[in-house]
Amino acid sequence: METQILDIGEDSLSAAKNILEEDGLVAFPTETVYGLGADAFNGEAVKKIFEVKGRPQDNPLIVHVHKDYDIERIVCDIPSYSYKLAERYLPGPLTMVFKSRGRISPVVSCGLDTIGIRVPSHEGGQRFLKFVDMPIAAPSANISKHVSPVTAEHVYADFCGKIPLILNGGKCSGGIESTVLDCTGEVPCVLRSGLVTREMIAEVAGDCTVFVPKAGERVRSPGMKYKHYSPNCRTMLFEYERLEEAAAEYKKERAAGSRAYIMCDDGCAKRLLDKIPAEHMLLLGNSGEEIASNLYFKLREGERVADIIIAIAPEDRGGVMVGVMNRLTKACGG
Questions:
Q1: Whether the Cβ atoms of residue 229 and residue 299 lie closer than 8 Å to each other
Q2: Per residue in 249-306, pLDDT tens?
Q3: pTM of the full structure
Q4: Strands (DSSP E) along 121-164, which ranges?
Q5: Cα-Cα end-to-end distance for the chain
Q6: Does 220 map to a domain?
């Protein structure tokens, strides 16, 4: 199979719609990461997502729709706080989980009676969803457990010869997957942290809890259970307070002949400049938003040049950094 990367336009969108209508898969951009999409009504097409990614069969998918799509066609029992959240944060990096009407293929939700609904803000992603005018089931467009893709080239590296079309929308600005919010109860509950923080949700909804999974409990959202986001090289993760130990590990690895690189935020890098050459650093930026935007891009860059990535956790752990640390820990902390 030939895999094409095409800029988003009338011809590529027509091709994408034809592929979806013929049970195929299309990769498309969102503001967070690229998604690997199939017609959410078509169970046979959705099964191909799991097959191509090597994704576990109990890890549910999110359904993407355009901003004018009437989600009450596919979900029900929508609480009033969800409308307020939608008005404030959608389109944007927020997935809300509702009770399903049973019209979306059960393959999407892995047998659960709920569906996660996402309205991405990426202009090209919205244009794609509006053109095909169907709910699109989509996880991130990468091989399962590999680093999520934030460019069309990242998708191509994982799926060349496996899918027919990648719609090119440039580099994703958000950089980590959407916040997933359970909206089936009286109070919203964060299942997966992201760019829309618990505090931001509570400000609108009045309250917000955070789900703590128990051993053996069934997965309720993508990104909750399995090792994720891992580069194809060795990794280590040090707490910010163990910065000197990280530098010592770097020197040890370099002395042994390994191509060791340090990945850290800009503030940490300044503290290490007398110990680590700048060309051996993968810099994430300063703010939480910058670090989120750069995390997967730098992990992908690192796996091309490094035998081992030695990551140092940022000092700040609040707000957006909750989601960043979730990804960083799953990518490098194992």
A1: yes
A2: 999 999 999 999 999 999 999 999 899 999 999 999 999 999 999 999 999 999 999 9
A3: 0.94
A4: 136-138
A5: 35
A6: no
